[in-house]
Write a structure and sequence with these properties.
The chain has helices at about 5-45, 45-80, 85-105, 105-110, 115-120, 125-135, 140-155, 160-180, 195-215, 235-270, 270-310, 310-345, 355-370, 375-390, 395-415, 420-445. By secondary structure, the protein is mostly helical. Helix 5 runs antiparallel to helix 6 and helix 12 (about 310-345) runs antiparallel to helix 14 (about 375-390).
Length: about 450
């Protein structure tokens, strides 16, 4: 068998070896939110709606903060491929510093969230619960962002298994903590949605402690001395992480905020529609985590090829990453169309009076979601490829235009003036994601993905 015949298999193995554990880790991480939603749904619709609304805003803020963690991944991958241990350490440390600083600065937003939610016209019975939830949840932001930095550091070094197992364990801890604090078991007070926030804080603290211990104690990683003199600032490295990370954060929050805005618009329609939207969004986002895992794998593989200055390897890794993403997107479309009502029903108590209505609304949202699977997978894959070559400012502008210049106006127009309601809001999401997918893929393949390109130059 020739080298040409075996090369595609080799690239496929590389994508799967990195992408599957990363996808599993993202799925497990997302299951923390899913278990919150399921258990709050069993507790009560008002608490579920509050959790959905609060989590949507929290996730938008969290997503911007992960820009620094996402900057760490390509920087570490490129530095490790060129055997520059010092740069690996510098980038990771300053990624943690910036994440901590951002988490502290964001706390006032969560504390005064009730005023914001009231001004946005959310249901009066939901706002006090959502504010109480977010005031507690805000304190989980720093450890959650530190977890992301350490996961990306390990992923860039192709050590993905430990993050997967730690995150799976965190899901189990979260279920137990939710059972205790939401429902008031084992002598704890019954706290409802506030109990879910307390459980999230405990889980994130345990996760960051476990990851930090692994990074510090594993013999193979001691060469990077990650936490030695951690308190010493490295302003040059911090500037590099900042310049690469803030555009990533803006691009991510542009997309996430589009979905948060959709949740707010859904709240204008009614509590049942908001709850249905939250459930459908949990389902689509859960499967999106697989796309995100393969996108992260593409970032690492392209970043390493960049560090080795191997353009042929860069293009081959990018092509295979895109192929894997497309195959998964097609499979996901079938699941949404065939199993929508069943999936939505899993999030609701059999005794919930509004169960039938919420299932019907949520299943209709999933049918629309099936339409944008290819676009959603393509845009996140293109983002991952561009991050691998440390191109972040152009993608930021594309994301802002696609999601807020196209997606947001289309959601409002289709949802309200044209009278399509919730399905119209989701239709606008389709247009925004499709625009981003086309423009970002064009940018990569006509730029750093060209055969004659040299993305390491300069």
């Amino acid at each position: 068998m020739t080298a040409t015949e075996t090369a595609p298999r080799s690239h496929l193995r590389a994508v799967l070896a990195l992408g599957l554990p990363l996808a599993g880790s993202h799925l497990a991480q997302f299951m923390l939110a899913v278990t919150d939603t399921i258990m709050l749904g069993w507790y009560g619709v008002a608490d579920l709606a509050a959790g959905v609304l609060g989590a949507a805003i929290f996730f938008a803020v969290f997503t911007f903060g992960t820009g620094f963690a996402n900057a760490v991944m390509p920087m570490v991958a490129t530095a490790a491929a060129s055997e520059n241990d010092t740069e690996v350490r510098r980038a990771t440390r300053m990624g943690i510093w910036l994440s901590i600083a951002f988490g502290i600065c964001a706390l006032p937003l969560f504390w005064f969230s009730g005023t914001l939610l009231g001004a946005l016209g959310q249901p009066e019975d939901v706002v006090p619960l959502a504010e109480a939830y977010m005031r507690i949840l805000g304190f989980s932001l720093v450890p959650a962002l530190a977890v992301m930095v350490l996961k990306n550091y390990l992923a860039a070094l192709r050590r993905t298994q430990v993050a997967l197992w730690i995150t799976i364990a965190a899901v189990g801890v979260n279920i137990i903590a939710n059972w205790v604090f939401i429902f008031g078991n084992l002598g704890a007070p019954e706290l409802g949605v506030r109990g879910a926030a307390i459980a999230t804080i405990l889980v994130n603290l345990a996760s960051v402690a476990a990851l930090a211990a692994y990074c510090a104690l594993l013999p193979a990683l001691r060469r990077y001395t990650l936490f030695q003199r951690f308190w010493r600032a490295d302003w040059q490295a911090m500037g590099q992480v900042w310049r690469l990370g803030w555009p990533i954060g803006v691009a991510l929050v542009a997309e996430t905020a589009l979905f948060s805005a959709a949740a707010i618009m859904m709240g204008w329609i009614g509590t049942q529609e908001l709850a249905s939207h939250g459930i459908a969004l949990e389902i689509t986002a859960m499967l999106f985590m697989v796309h995100l895992g393969f996108s992260n794998a593409a970032t690492v593989l392209v970043g390493r090829a960049r560090g080795m200055r191997d353009q042929a390897l860069l293009r081959a890794s990018a092509r295979m990453s895109v192929i894997v993403s497309v195959v998964f997107a097609c499979a996901t479309m079938v699941v949404y169309i065939m199993m929508g009502p069943l999936l939505v029903g899993l999030f609701l108590s059999p005794d919930e009076p509004a169960r039938a209505a919420i299932i019907a609304i949520g299943a209709s949202f999933l049918i629309v979601a099936a339409v944008f699977q290819l676009a959603d997978g393509a845009q996140v894959m293109a983002m991952g490829l561009l991050r691998g070559v440390q191109d972040t400012r152009g993608p930021m502008l594309i994301a802002a235009f696609s999601y807020w210049g196209v997606g947001m106006p289309a959601s409002y127009l289709m949802g309200f003036p044209l009278g399509f309601g919730g399905e119209g809001i989701w239709g606008g999401l389709v247009l925004g994601l499709s625009t981003a997918a086309v423009l970002l893929m064009w940018r990569f393949w006509r730029g750093p993905g060209r055969a004659d390109a040299r993305p390491w130059a300069g």
